[in-house]
Design a protein that fits this description.
- This protein has 161 residues and is an alpha+beta fold.
- The protein has a single domain, classed as 2-Layer Sandwich (Alpha-D-Glucose-1,6-Bisphosphate, Chain A, domain 4), CATH 3.30.530.20.
- The protein is built from three helices and seven strands, in the order βααββββββα.
- Strands 1-7-6-5-4-3-2 form a seven-stranded antiparallel β-sheet.
- The mean pLDDT is 94.
Length: 161
């Protein structure tokens, strides 16, 4: 999943061990605590952490008049603990049936399948994380959501230190 477009790439340094950051990505209970933009909760994070295994995540936002849910499903393509994680991501319904991004209000041309690549390296007791989300344009709301999620991740790692 590569081409010449500018997809989201975010690099962050965390004052935590590589193992701690890896667990945040791969332990469903920890992942639920930080994933998603501000105002969203993650009531479901299922992860079969093997190559070919499925991951299924639900993000929810509750307002006084309704709860909006967004479901995502994907497959792990590469797992090299604790330094590299690659998985696909597609929108789906609660049963895991794929739905088009446009049916959820995403712009025309949003791909049905995207790919997330997480690379971690430890330097001097800190971890540098580079995340690429292929299929999500740079400067999009998706990038903003990732930035907010990574702020939450940094806060959790600081609390755990």
């Amino acid at each position: 999943m590569t081409d010449d477009q500018a997809w989201v790439t975010i690099t962050r340094e965390f004052d935590a061990s590589i193992d701690a950051v890896w667990r945040m990505w791969t332990d469903p209970a920890l992942f639920r605590q930080w994933y998603g933009p501000n105002g969203m909760t993650v009531p479901v994070a299922e992860m079969d952490l093997v190559v070919g295994g499925t991951r299924k995540v639900c993000m929810e936002m509750t307002s006084p008049d309704r709860t909006m849910s967004m479901w995502f499903i994907g497959v792990y393509k590469e797992i090299k603990a604790p330094s590299r994680l690659v998985y696909t991501e597609s929108m789906c319904d609660a049963d895991g049936t794929l739905i088009t991004p446009q049916s959820m209000g995403m712009p025309e041309g949003t791909p049905d399948v995207t790919e997330v690549v997480v690379e971690l390296r430890e330097t001097d007791g800190k971890t540098v994380m580079t995340m690429h989300h292929v299929g999500v344009p740079e400067g999009s709301a998706g990038q903003g959501g990732w930035m907010q999620a990574f702020d939450k991740l940094a806060g959790l790692l600081e609390e755990a230190a």
